[in-house]
Design a protein that fits this description.
It is built from 17 helices and 13 strands. By secondary structure, it is of the alpha/beta class. The chain has a domain of 64 residues. The strands form 3 sheets. It has an 8-stranded parallel β-sheet with strand order 5-2-1-13-12-9-8-7, covered by helices on one side. A 3-stranded mixed β-sheet has the order 4-3-6, with helices on one face. Strand 12, helix 16 and strand 13 form a beta-alpha-beta unit. Helix 5 packs parallel to helix 9 and helix 11 packs across helix 12. The longest helix has 19 residues. The radius of gyration is 22 Å and the shape is globular.
């Protein structure tokens, strides 16, 4: 019998995987479909070795990858933190999914980006629950700039009665329907017809069924809310502990969980009290006032952060990159310092900017979109079109050496990662 060559063997393995997935009812999510967007972006790139490489992968299979992280699911088009958004992200190859975690008045954890965003991410102001908001919407005396509806204002049962929508609001509106609008023209309301909200525990079970891993982010507290975290849990530490307890109760292995927080105390609590989970807890870096090319502004220093037991740091993309005078994207001093301190890096967030006209809204170098503010060199602009986002991703992956990146449309990252063979679990060295 002649030995199978590598291509035939690969084809056989893919066929066996598809057959097994079909037999077990998981076929729907085993076939990764990135759709037309990655190809649209690649076609728009200027000729380069990177474009040639990405074009060459056009007919190759795309794999699920831990490098591709579903940021709130797939909120470029689907209402964030909804069942529908998560399912869309799974279809596009996201290997890890994010549930931002807030809490209800009866002490249950739910998936919301912020403690007080229900007025922009759900239909609450059009329901009777509007009356329970910290600051209700009053259509008879429009107060769009003041409305504040929090998860902590209502119970889990009440939360589950709401419907998710695209995160937007028209603060100048004079009607309830108008207030619920305001979606940016580069997003869409086409998938607003249903948005199923989830508790944190329900998200765990959903992610299990999708065969993806977990990266919950503990949110808050919002000190403007009517109900505070201490009122419900007694302390922030108890709140942080409950998040981990729900993974333990669900039997999730710690190596499949990357718990995140902007609050260093949350991360240190996990490192100290839940070391198996704390080993890959993620410190989200919100030090937006630092200069990513001036290490003297890194306070605390990267070495100080690592000395506390933190092993993964997650800054916004702009902290990790810089642009040279000849228009080349390169790692920032921030990126170099983090790597020198032994920190792994996760970046955020891809596909969260309107780059149809590039990174700048005018000829002024300071007029960059928030996530692309690294592209502010007055001598050269690197991101001139939406296709150029792949140039930034390539530097993040190859030169900065990030281990993953959040995306509002995971297909763009999944396509790149599979093309570059960044789909091995070994990218997360702790796994």
């Amino acid at each position: 019998m002649r030995p199978l060559n590598i291509l035939k063997l690969a084809g056989l393995l893919l066929l066996l995987n598809s057959s097994f997935a079909f037999a077990t009812g998981k076929y729907y999510y085993s076939r990764i479909d990135v759709g037309p967007r990655p190809h649209f972006l690649v076609e728009g790139m200027e000729p380069s070795l990177l474009k040639h490489k990405l074009e060459a992968c056009r007919n190759f299979p795309v794999f699920k990858t831990d490098f591709s992280i579903g940021h709130r699911g797939a909120p470029l088009q689907f209402p964030e933190h909804t069942k529908e958004s998560y399912e869309a992200a799974a279809k596009m190859g996201a290997g890890i999914m994010e549930c931002d975690v807030s809490f209800t008045a009866d002490g249950e954890l739910v998936c919301r980006h912020a403690q007080c965003d229900l007025h922009t991410t759900t239909n609450i102001v059009a329901t009777e629950l509007n009356e329970k908001c910290t600051v209700p919407w009053t259509p008879e005396s429009p107060n769009g700039s003041e409305v504040l509806c929090c998860t902590s204002d209502i119970t889990l049962e009440e939360f589950k009665s709401l419907e998710g929508k695209m995160d937007a609001a028209d603060r100048s509106a004079t009607t309830t329907e108008g207030f619920l609008g305001g979606t940016a023209d580069w997003r869409t309301d086409l998938y607003n017809s249903r948005g199923t909200l989830l508790s944190h525990a329900e998200s765990i079970e959903l992610f299990k069924s999708l065969n993806v891993k977990f990266t919950p982010e503990l949110k808050g507290p919002n000190r403007n809310a009517r109900v505070q975290v201490e009122d419900v849990f007694g302390s922030q530490a108890n709140y942080a502990q409950k998040l981990i307890d729900e993974y333990k109760a669900a039997g999730v292995h710690p190596r499949k969980v990357w718990a995140q927080s902007f609050n260093p105390d949350d991360v240190l609590h996990w490192i100290t009290n839940e070391p198996q989970f704390g080993d890959q807890a993620v410190y989200l870096d919100g030090r937006y006032s630092l200069n990513p090319d001036d290490p003297s502004t890194f306070e605390p220093s990267m070495a100080d952060i690592a000395a506390k037991g933190v092993e993964i740091i997650a800054p916004p993309m702009w902290m990790l990159l810089a642009v040279t005078d000849d228009g080349k994207i390169v790692p920032s001093e921030y990126a170099k310092s983090a790597k020198a301190a032994g920190l792994d890096i996760i970046a955020w967030t891809f596909e969260r900017s309107d780059l149809r006209n590039g990174s700048r809204s005018s000829d002024d170098p300071s007029s960059t979109t928030w996530y692309y503010q690294f592209d502010d060199n007055p001598m050269a602009q690197a991101v001139k079109t939406d296709s150029d986002m792949y140039l930034a991703l390539d530097v993040l992956a190859k030169d900065v050496g990030i281990i993953g990146i959040f995306s509002d449309w995971p297909a763009t990252v999944s396509y790149y990662a599979s093309c570059m063979k960044i789909w091995r679990y070994a990218r997360f060295r702790r796994y």
